[in-house]
């Protein structure tokens, strides 16, 4: 019972971050303790370079954080996260033997000196250009990522995804409850404040434009109605359960697709307004939820994701493949990735077997072909 209450409060804190990003470091601390970790970070990774920007963090040594961003991101065994399924909790030991992991520079020079052992990472959102990732790091004394840690993280992942997507859609530092609707009126995303019966309490300018077009959403008798019967039913269910609190919203409706008759795609995200700092806004406008609607981004996979899926490559094999393209032969790749030459040779053998390539030049040509904008 105490565990359920702790989880409910944590979910509420996560949703508060959607409107006030300054809360993320404190909430990451709560996530770290809930997952039994040592530190955590919310970061984004660039699809082209693989580099990562740490936006918010908790419990991270500033010096080692700087070293990661300057140097050790390229040795991180989980750097190619672009082909990992969104919402899936992964750790280094999912992709490589423990012995191989421990011989790499990332463990020897970055994790081990801090008394750290393993990382649990989950992709919260990804596009052609980047992906948003939550990483929780575990110390040596706690042991590697285990089933219990994964279970705990899975309980909050849907809510984290929703909060990150809403925060990205509205792009606000803070929204005070007293001026909630006025503050959101200038957003390019459509915003609707909805009561438990699905009635529209308030809509911003972009929201009124969406209703006027009537392509994917409309107002019927003051109630918000989706053109798709399935989406409309899902929205009604979420609005009804939102009155019972954040946790009641559950895993459904993280990103509801809205498609107009001409094929134009929008996506809707729901933010409960019945708990936490958002409760004041809900009371002020007799609303139980805020619905944000914006045009869907093009959901095209990155070249690395396409290659990995096509040839069924592991993250380490993918790292070796792109290192071959960028730095050259086996000894240079071993130095660049911080692993033994024998390990590089092992992965090269698997790459040749999986891709049908016979030499380094063939691998370079393969990556170039998949990276072409003409490849569909």
Main CATH class of the largest domain: Alpha Beta
What do we call the CATH topology of the largest domain? Beta-Lactamase
What's the structural domain tally? 3
* Large-scale geometry: globular
Low-confidence stretches: 172-178
**CATH 4th-level superfamily of the largest domain:** Transcription factor LuxR-like, autoinducer-binding domain
Number of beta strands: 12
Strand order of the largest sheet: 2-1-5-4-3
Structural class: alpha+beta
CATH architecture of the largest domain: 2-Layer Sandwich
Mean pLDDT: 83
Largest sheet: 5 strands, antiparallel
Number of helices: 16
Radius of gyration: 23 Å
Give the amount of beta strand, in percent.
15-25%
CA distance, first residue to last residue: 51 Å
Short key terms for the protein model shown above:
Arc Repressor Mutant, subunit A, 5-stranded antiparallel beta sheet, Beta-Lactamase, 376 residues, globular, alpha+beta
Description:
The termini are far apart. Helix 13 (315-327) packs across helix 16. Helices cover 44% and strands 20% of the residues. The chain has 3 domains: 2-170, Transcription factor LuxR-like, autoinducer-binding domain (Beta-Lactamase, 2-Layer Sandwich), CATH 3.30.450; 177-295, Beta-Lactamase, CATH 3.30.450; 303-371, Winged helix-like DNA-binding domain superfamily/Winged helix DNA-binding domain (Arc Repressor Mutant, subunit A, Orthogonal Bundle). 43% of the residues are buried. The longest helix is centred in the middle third of the chain and has 24 residues, at 147-170. It is of the alpha+beta class and 376 residues long. The strands form 3 sheets. The protein has a 5-stranded antiparallel beta sheet with strand order 2-1-5-4-3, with helices on both faces. It has a 5-stranded antiparallel beta sheet with strand order 7-6-12-11-10. Residues 172-178 have low confidence and may be disordered.
């Amino acid at each position: 019972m105490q565990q359920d209450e702790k989880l409910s409060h944590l979910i509420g804190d996560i949703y508060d971050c959607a409107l006030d990003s300054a809360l993320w470091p404190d909430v990451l601390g709560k996530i770290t303790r809930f997952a039994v970790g040592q530190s955590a970070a919310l970061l984004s990774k660039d699809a082209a370079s693989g580099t990562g920007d740490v936006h918010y963090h908790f419990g991270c040594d500033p010096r080692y954080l700087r070293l990661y961003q300057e140097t050790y991101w390229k040795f991180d065994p989980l750097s190619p996260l672009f082909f990992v399924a969104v919402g899936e909790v992964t750790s280094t030991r999912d992709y490589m033997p423990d012995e191989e992991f421990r011989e790499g520079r990332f463990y020897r020079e970055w994790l081990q000196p801090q008394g750290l052992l393993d990382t649990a990472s989950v992709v919260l959102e990804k596009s052609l250009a980047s992906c948003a990732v939550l990483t929780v790091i575990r110390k040596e004394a706690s042991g590697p990522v285990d089933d219990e840690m994964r279970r705990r993280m899975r309980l909050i992942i849907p809510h984290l995804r929703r909060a990150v997507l809403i925060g990205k859609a509205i792009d606000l530092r803070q929204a005070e409850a007293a001026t909630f609707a006025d503050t959101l009126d200038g957003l390019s995303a459509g915003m609707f404040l909805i009561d438990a019966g699905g009635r529209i309490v308030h809509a911003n300018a972009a929201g009124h434009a969406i209703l006027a077009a009537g392509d994917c959403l409309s107002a019927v008798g003051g109630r918000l109605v989706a053109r798709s019967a399935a989406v409309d039913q899902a929205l009604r269910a979420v609005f009804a359960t939102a009155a019972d609190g954040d946790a009641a919203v559950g895993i459904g409706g993280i990103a509801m697709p809205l498609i107009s008759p001409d094929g134009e795609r929008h996506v809707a995200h729901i933010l409960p307004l019945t708990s936490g700092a958002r409760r004041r806004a809900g009371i002020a406008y007799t609303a139980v939820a805020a619905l944000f609607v914006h045009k869907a981004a093009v959901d095209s996979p990155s070249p690395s994701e396409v290659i990995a899926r096509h040839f069924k490559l592991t993250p380490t094999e993918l790292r070796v493949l792109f290192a071959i393209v960028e730095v050259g032969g086996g000894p240079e790749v071993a130095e660049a990735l911080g692993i033994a030459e024998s390990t590089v040779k092992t992965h090269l053998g698997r790459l040749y077997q999986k891709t049908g390539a016979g030499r380094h030049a063939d691998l370079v040509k393969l990556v170039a072909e998949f990276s072409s904008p003409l490849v569909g």
